[in-house]
Amino acid sequence: MYDCSKIHKITVQYASEGPGKYAADSWKILTEEESRAICQIANDSDRSIEAIIKAHSAKPVRSIVINQDVHMMDPSKVKVAAE
């Protein structure tokens, strides 16, 4: 299913935890070792990496990115339109 030797990092962005909170406030970049371990678990259980992470996460997961740099939004620089 996956070639785990090609998995170098996994970035997990968690869903917003309520009004006034930005999802980009909460994210985690898994190390190469952690990423490859999850990859192996996914292969062994014939499930996707995304399904494994979502099933074992304490927080709701918004997105998962494999092997790519992700721009993390700085909520202090976000302009919010006046109501």
Provide a descriptive summary of the structure in words.
By secondary structure, the protein is of the alpha+beta class. It has a three-stranded antiparallel sheet with strand order 2-1-3. The protein is globular. Helices cover 27% and strands 18% of the residues. Mean pLDDT is 82; it is low at 76-83. It has helices at residues 32-45, 49-56; strands spanning 10-14, 27-30, 61-66.
Q: In terms of topology, how is this protein built?
A:
Blueprint lengths: L9 E5 L12 E4 L1 H14 L3 H8 L4 E6 L17
Antiparallel strand pairs: 1-2, 1-3
Helix pairs in contact: 1-2
Task: Give a quick summary of the entry.
By secondary structure, the protein is α+β, with helices and mostly antiparallel strands. It has helices spanning 32-45, 49-56; strands at 10-14, 27-30, 61-66.
Main β-sheet, in a few words?
3 strands, antiparallel
Number of helices, where a helix is a run of at least 4 consecutive DSSP H or I residues: 2
Categorize the overall geometry.
globular
Gyration radius, in Å: 15 Å
**Beta strand %:** 15-25%
Number of strands: 3
Task: Output the helix-strand order.
Answer: EEHHE
Chain-averaged pLDDT: 82
Separation of the first and last Cα atoms: 48 Å
Give me the side-by-side strand order of the main sheet: 2-1-3
Task: State the low-pLDDT regions, or none.
Answer: 76-83
| Helix content range | 25-40%
Q: Structural class per helix/strand content? A: alpha+beta
